[in-house]
Amino acid sequence: MNNILHTKNKWTAALCFILGLMLVLMLSTAIFFTVTLGLLDLRGPEWKWVRIYGAMVWLYFWQYMTYRWMKRHTTWWGELTDEKTDKEVQQ
Question: Rounded to two decimals, what is the model's pTM?
Fold first, then answer.
């Protein structure tokens, strides 16, 4: 697992980034609609704006959190954007 999180191969980094983003988007969408439609029962035309804008905010939040996690704990982001971390610059 540690080898996947810290890679120097751009293809592995791109594949992990795409798969991770798809997984986060699918899970967060499923959770959002399960909660809004199932538990809160926000069905009908009067709740349409809540479902649309709520989903947009929810998905944006999880995309941002995924970006922050990837940038902090993996080398994928640095490999894809050619950014160097502080540790790599000091060496």
Answer: 0.64
